[in-house]
Design goal:
This protein is an alpha/beta fold. It has three domains: about 170 residues, Ribosomal Protein S5, domain 2 (2-Layer Sandwich), CATH 3.30.230; about 240 residues, P-loop containing nucleotide triphosphate hydrolases (Rossmann fold), CATH 3.40.50.300; about 70 residues, no CATH class. The chain contains 21 helices and 18 strands. Strands 11-14-17-10-18 form a five-stranded parallel beta sheet. It has a four-stranded mixed beta sheet with strand order 1-2-4-3. The protein has a three-stranded parallel beta sheet with strand order 5-8-9, sandwiched between helices. Strand 8, helix 5 and strand 9 form a beta-alpha-beta unit. Helix 7 packs parallel to helix 17 and helix 17 crosses helix 20. The longest helix is centred in the C-terminal third of the chain and has 18 residues.
């Protein structure tokens, strides 16, 4: 009897740690002991592994088995350790030849009959393995689509424990699987389907260009949700770095959007207004899961009926709106997820929704209206750049057969304006106008003198806050890029100021 070792991966958020899995098989009463802070899924691995080994034509040792997962202080979770533990047990009992597997990562859950099942979070695991210098990874065949996103790691897909044993014991090694390429899929929605709402479309185009946050307010049925659903169609496709980040987050969460994301489509996440704080920003006990904020990273987070959200849910968004990330602290440590998204809030003007619009008779008292709108706190609204009124389209707009502008046309303008901003910010560490640091706005990216004087007067009158001053400047730069103007002037600043205050007019 002897000691054998393999390697696996443990995740904390998007960060992965190499786990050394050592198995010691010695004489003694038959037993199985797992060391190294395993969770419930890992503690249940014994019975899965035992059945899988037996159904794969191998023998479960009737001896004392000790499995150690190190570093011992790090909590381990998930069923992805089934495969490396089973390989180590078979190697320790000399049922397979002793191999040097120090540069190979094994990831996979085993079924009772020995089939290899997919696991959540495979992509961030492989990115961590690549970062730590691993050369190859044996993964479930069902996870192959996301595994291919890792270019500097040899990916060996397998469908069963028998196939894995054949590969590591000298059978013909599968050649590197050809990369499956995904083209940017045609969107299911198009702005050409929206009748009227030209002001709202223009506001959404500005927001998409600069990465600005949006509030749409209007009666029910005016098209707020329809407009929000089409916002991702005018965002540029995800680049390689964005694709990895977003796919890694959705891999951990196990969402159904992963296939669409691998086609470089920006994510669109629309949690219900009854969602919990954990559902919005992420949470959990031992295994922290990303929330809607992180799932919408590099995409759109849409919250309909925003004033109906429970107290504190919307204010929890204030941290990611400023920093672009979420930190979740538990007794086991702190987990960080990226969360840089375009926030779209939709709200009715009052609880019944009939406060404005022709032919509408509101049943709400002024106190009810005030209480309803006060659920959107001042600090949150101060972080919203684009505020839009959305009213019913006219009968002429609904009946018109004139061609409407498509999402593709709008996206071309967005991409052109973003290219201008990217060239302007080259080497500075950011690409979008919404991400310009405040010190850069003061020193390097000011508006012209007349526009700056106008903003200073507004600050002195306390009509805007210091944050609002910076938000207006960033928005003015976006409008200038869309207009082809080299520096924002009074016109651009006035347009930005109008967008910041439109719902209150």
């Amino acid at each position: 009897m002897s000691v054998a070792a393999t390697r696996g991966i443990s995740l904390n958020g998007l960060e992965g740690e190499i786990i050394n899995i050592e198995v010691d098989v010695t004489h003694g009463l038959p037993s199985y002991q797992l060391l190294g802070l395993p969770d419930a899924a890992l503690n249940e691995a014994r019975d899965r592994i035992r059945s899988a080994i037996g159904n794969s034509g191998k023998r479960w040792p009737q001896t004392k088995i000790t499995v150690s997962l190190s570093p011992a202080w790090l909590p381990k979770s998930g069923s992805g350790f089934d495969l490396p533990i089973s390989i180590a047990i078979l190697s320790a009992t000399q049922q397979i030849s002793e191999l040097d597997l120090n540069e190979t990562i094994f990831i996979g859950e085993l079924s009772l009959e020995g089939l290899l099942r997919p696991v959540r979070g495979l992509l961030p695991m492989l990115l961590a393995a690549e970062k730590h210098g691993m050369r190859r990874a044996v993964v479930p065949e069902a996870n192959l689509s996301e595994a291919q996103s890792v270019s500097r790691l040899e990916i060996i897909p397998a469908s069963s424990l028998v196939q894995v044993l054949a590969i590591i014991c000298g059978a013909e090694m599968p050649r590197q699987i050809p990369l499956i390429t995904y083209e940017n899929e045609s969107p299911n929605f198009d702005f050409a389907e929206v009748a009227g709402q030209e002001d709202a479309k223009r506001g959404l185009e500005i927001a998409a260009t600069g990465g600005h946050h949006i509030l749409m307010m209007g009666p029910p049925g005016t098209g707020k949700t329809m407009l929000a659903e089409r916002l991702p169609t005018i965002l540029p496709p995800l680049n390689d770095d964005q694709l990895r980040d977003v796919a890694a987050i959705h891999s951990i969460a196990g969402t159904t959007q992963l296939a669409s994301i691998l086609r470089r489509t920006p994510p669109f996440v629309a949690p219900h207004h009854t969602t919990t704080s954990a559902g919005m920003v992420g949470g959990g006990t031992k295994m922290i899961r990303p929330g809607a904020c992180s799932l919408s990273h590099h995409g759109v987070l849409f919250i309909d009926e925003a004033p109906e959200c429970a107290h504190g849910i919307l204010d929890a968004l204030r941290q990611p709106l400023e920093s672009g990330s979420i930190e979740i602290t538990r007794a086991v440590g702190t987990t960080r997820f990226p969360a840089r998204f375009i926030l779209v809030l939709a709200a009715n003007p009052c609880p019944c929704g009939r406060f404005s619009g022709k032919g509408r008779s509101c049943q709400c008292s002024s106190l009810q209206v005030r209480r309803y709108l006060n659920r959107l706190s001042g600090p949150l609204l101060d972080r919203i750049d684009v505020k839009l009124r959305v009213d019913n389209p006219t009968r002429a707009e609904l009946a018109s057969n004139d061609p409407r502008e498509s999402s593709e046309e709008m996206r071309r303008r967005v991409e052109s304006a973003r290219a201008i901003a990217r060239e302007r910010f080259a080497g500075l560490g950011f690409e979008l106008n919404s991400a310009i640091p405040s010190e850069f706005l003061r020193r390097k990216f000011r508006a012209d003198s007349k526009a700056m004087s106008m903003l200073h007067i507004l600050i002195e009158r306390e009509e805007i806050t210091a944050r609002g001053f910076h938000k207006i400047l960033r928005l003015a730069w976006t409008i200038a890029d869309l207009r082809g103007v080299s520096i924002p002037g009074v016109d651009e600043v006035e347009a930005a100021l109008a967008l910041r205050t439109e719902t209150s007019q």
